[in-house]
Amino acid sequence: PLGRRVLPAVGRRMQRTWLDFAKGRLGVQEGGEWPLYDDRDRRTRVIRSTRDETVADPDRVRRSAWEGLY
């Protein structure tokens, strides 16, 4: 659904982001910052088809549903 032109760009951004992560460069990334994770804010880097963004607790609803089971 995204077309062939978009997907390679997403893959390249993802590879570059993980490479920077492996090298310890967590600061400024293309499209914003990738902060260190903590369980208070649960800020997570989300790689989307056209741009990346940092989202606070993206799986809050799912995590909350499972929280009472264990």
Walk me through this protein's architecture:
The chain is of the alpha+beta class and 70 residues long. It contains 2 helices and 4 strands. It has helices at residues 6-22, 60-67, and strands at 28-29, 32-33, 43-47, 52-56. The strands form 2 sheets. Strands 1-2 form a two-stranded antiparallel ribbon. A two-stranded antiparallel sheet has the order 3-4. Strand 1 (28-29) and strand 2 (32-33) form a beta hairpin. The longest helix has 17 residues, at 6-22. The protein is globular and about 40 Å long. The chain starts with 5 loop residues before the first helix and ends with a helix. The model has no long low-confidence stretch (mean pLDDT 77).
List the main descriptive attributes of the protein structure presented here.
about 70 residues, alpha+beta, two-stranded antiparallel sheet, about 35% helix, globular
Write the layout of secondary structure elements.
Layout: H1 6-22, E1 28-29, E2 32-33, E3 43-47, E4 52-56, H2 60-67
Antiparallel strand pairs: 1-2, 3-4
> Main β-sheet, in a few words?
2 strands, antiparallel
Rounded mean pLDDT is 77
Give the number of helices: 2
Q: Low-confidence runs (pLDDT<50, min 5 residues)?
A: none
| Share of residues in helices | 25-40%
- Per DSSP E runs of 2 or more residues, the count of β-strands stands at 4
> Termini separation (Å)?
38 Å
- Beta-strand share of residues: 15-25%
Oligomer: single chain
Strand order of the largest sheet: 1-2
Rg: 15 Å
Net shape: globular
Q: H/E element string?
A: HEEEEH
Structural class: alpha+beta
